[in-house]
Amino acid sequence: MFEKSTWIRLPRNVVVGHDVLAETVSVVDDLHLEGRPLLVTSPTPRKLAAEPIAADFEERGIEPAIVTVEEASFEAVESVIDAAEEVDASYLIGVGGGKAIDIAKMATDHLDTGFLSVPTAASHDGIVSNRGSVPDGNTRHSVAAEPPLAVVADTGILANAPWELTTAGCADIISNYTAVMDWRLAHRLKNVEYSEYAAALAEMTAEILVGNADMIRPGLEESAWIVTKALMSSGVAMSIASSSRPASGAEHLFSHQLDRLAPGAALHGHQVGVGSIMTAYLHEGESGIWTEIRDALASIDAPTTAADLGIDDETVIEALTTCHAIRDRYTILGDGMDERAAREVAVKTGVIG
Ligand SMILES: NC(=O)C1=CN([C@@H]2O[C@H](COP(=O)(O)OP(=O)(O)OC[C@H]3O[C@@H](n4cnc5c(N)ncnc54)[C@H](OP(=O)(O)O)[C@@H]3O)[C@@H](O)[C@H]2O)C=CC1
Ligand SMILES: O=C(CO)COP(=O)(O)O
Ligand SMILES: [Zn+2]
After folding, report:
1. Which residues bind glycerol (predicted)?
2. Does ligand 2 have an atom closer than 6 angstroms to the CB of 244?
3. Predicted TM-score (pTM) above 0.90
C-alpha cells in the first residue's frame, strides 16, 4: 500500500524587482493579513528599508512596531518574541540581511504567526528557505523553520548593498554543486532520503549562476535580479526536500566549523565557496569541476583561498579534519579526513600556500 506523503511549504508571493519595497503593504493585503506588524530589522537596514515600509503602513492608518537586533543570537530571538507579545503583533516582517530575517523566522516559529522576508542583502539562500540559522551553543547549522509567507526583494537596495554580501550569496549558490554531490553519495551509500527534483533544482541554480557569472557586477540591478532568483530557487529546493541537503554538504560543515574556530572572520557564503573548491576536488580529483568552481568564484571577486578569507592555513586544516563530526550528515569526508590528506587537498587546490 502506498503510504508516502510530503508537505511542501513555500512562500505564497515572491516579489522581486525595481522599487518593489513600496509594494510591501500591497503584498500584505494580498496575504489577507490584518492587525499590527512587527518589523524586525538591524541598524543599517532599518534606515534603508524598515522605516520606509513603516511609513507606508502609517499612511494606511496601521501603526507598525519596529525592533532592532544587533547580533544573531537566541537572546535576540527572545527579545523579538517579547516585543511581539507586548505590541500584540499579528505578523512579523524581517527586514535586513540574514541576521534580521532569521531572527524573525525563528521568532515566528515560536509565536505561530507568519512572517514576510524583506532581504536588503543577497548574502545567502536563507532569505526564502524553511531553514533558520541562529548560533545555538556549539551548533552553527540551520534547523527546520517555517518559510516566509512572502518575499519582497528590492533589486535597487540589493544592488547597492556591499558587493561582498552579493558575492557571498553567489558563493552560497555555487556551493550547491558539491552539496548535491554529497547528497547523492549519502543516498547511494547510506540510503539517505533523496529528492531528484530538489537536487536537480539546486544544481541547476548553481549552473545558471555560473553560466551568468560574467554578468554579475557591482551596483547592477540586473545582477541583483540574477542572484536573487538563484537564492530563491535554492531556498525552494530546500523546502521541497524539507532539508538543507540540496544546498549544504561538506563545504557547509567546513564553514560551520570555521564559524567556531574563527568566529566572524568571513561571511558564510565566502567560507562555503572555499570549502566547495576542496570538496569538489575530493569528489572528482584533479580533472573534476573544482577548477570551474574556483574560477567562477574568482570571476565575481569571491574568496578562493584561506588568505582571501583572512583565516590562517592551520585553522583551515583543523576545520577540514574535524568538521565531519559536528553533524549527523554523511558527506565525502566520511568519518573524517587524515591531516596529511587535508593538507594535500588544500595545497593542490591553492586554498593554502
Ligand atoms: N537560514 C539560512 O539558511 C542561513 C542563515 N544564515 C544566517 O545569516 C546571518 C548571516 O547573514 P548576513 O546577511 O551576512 O548577516 P547580517 O544580517 O549581519 O548582514 C551582514 C552585514 O551587512 C549589513 N547590511 C545588510 N544589508 C545591507 C545593505 N543593504 N547595505 C549595507 N549594509 C547592509 C548589516 O548591517 P547591520 O550591521 O546594521 O545589521 C551587517 O553589518 C547569520 O546570522 C547566519 O547565521 C547564514 C546562512 C544560511
Ligand atoms: O546555509 C545553508 C544553505 O545554503 C543552510 O545549511 P545548513 O543546514 O548546513 O546550515
Ligand atoms: Zn549556505
Report:
1. 125, 172, 252, 268
2. yes
3. yes
